[in-house]
Design brief:
This is VWA domain-containing protein. Keywords: Membrane, Signal, Transmembrane, Transmembrane helix. It comes from Kitasatospora acidiphila. By secondary structure, the chain is an alpha/beta fold. It has 2 domains: 194 residues, von Willebrand factor, type A domain (Rossmann fold), CATH 3.40.50; 146 residues, Sandwich (Jelly Rolls). The chain is 31% helix and 26% strand. The protein contains 10 helices and 17 strands. The strands form 4 sheets. It has a 6-stranded mixed beta sheet with strand order 5-4-1-6-7-8, sandwiched between helices. It has a 5-stranded mixed beta sheet with strand order 9-10-17-12-15, with no helix packed on it. Helix 3 packs antiparallel against helix 5, helix 6 runs parallel beside helix 7 and helix 7 packs parallel to helix 8. The protein starts with 10 loop residues before the first helix and ends with a helix. The N terminus is likely disordered.
Amino acid sequence: MITRRRLPGRPAALLTALLTMAFATLGVLPAQADSPSPSPTEQTAGGDDAPKVDLILDVSGSMGIADIDGRSRISVAQQSIDDVIDALPPEAEFGIRTLGATYPVSDKTDGCTDTKVLYPVGHTDKVEAKTAVATLRPTGWTPIGLALRGAAQDLGTGTATRRVVLVTDGEDDCAPPDPCDVARELAAQGTHLVVDTLGLAHDDKVRQQLLCIANATGGTYTDVHSQQQLTERLKQSVQHSDNSYRATPANVTGTDQCATAPLLSPGVYADREKFSEHRVYRVPVKNGQELRASVSVTPDRAVARDYGVLLQATDGSGQELVRGTDAGSGRTDVAATGLRWSATRSASPTASATGTTGVANGDQVVCLVVSNSFAGQPGVQSDPGLPLELTVDVKAASSAPDGPALGLGRGWIMLLVLTGAGLVCGLLWGWIARWRIRIWQEN
């Protein structure tokens, strides 16, 4: 009878050990599964302000008209707001302001100052908020301009995005102040307050006014036709506030030429750019550093088809160093592109920053040029310009390959490593097999 002696351990475990030895011999170890490091946003989000939303609800007399799904406009709005309150994330700070809820139509003097806080902006007691909404009845006038100013005060200041959602069925019948002028006034303050408008009445004058308010602040306008549409749009506005960036970009005004352009350090910047305009900014970059920049332009109004956004890095003489482009046709929420450029590459002598105010001797000045080919549809205002957000960062120059040849070389290196590992494993496995046969023959 032939007895086979079992080798110590299992073949799979032995093979794993051999593979590890082979990779270690070649200086390559299999990657370990580590938990991902938190991004800078994840690391700091806990210390930022919570997203803030203030909902302005029109409670004027016309909100009693029953023309949405066979129900009155106010009842449709109340139901949608209830649904939104139920879906609020726990960290959101939410408030409700009314207009036209107190004084009757017969009292225009007081009715045109009638805007009040129904539920203050803060962490929401859902039962209290819904109860307050349920008590509202269509009553008075429509002072939208004053309500917008009041909502801005309700939201206060902070690093979080502040969003106003206006639900109304009519245009302001109490101006001045004109609500479009108020919206532009709020946008000019640079506090990143966005106003979304939702119209419950399908009237051209109402639509134009609500579009003007939204366009001035970088918000959106929706012509509401059903209960479901209103609910979905309200929820989207709240979610957009939660998803928006938490740090308010610094306001900056680009120029039309590099020599007079503002000098930017790493950070996030906000500007506005008119249709088919060029905006220029300057960034100092030291030798051995890499410039990384990205730009997004938001078509916050009706624009023509076929458009593009171009981000160029040039030297002081206007010679292009690198570019990034984005183009499209049809409806989109944002057009964005980016670029990277390393200062270790040769630069034009005119790119030197020697003697430039605010720039150290020996630094190079890179001119960032933002261009767009948007065009407005008929009747669309060009002022204010389209919202533009520019992100600038300067890092140590990347060791990434500059071209396909080096990338191909790195691929061949990995192929050689894998081939060598396979050869070593094959030799070891052959030696083990011969050893097992010899042991089997001896027994």
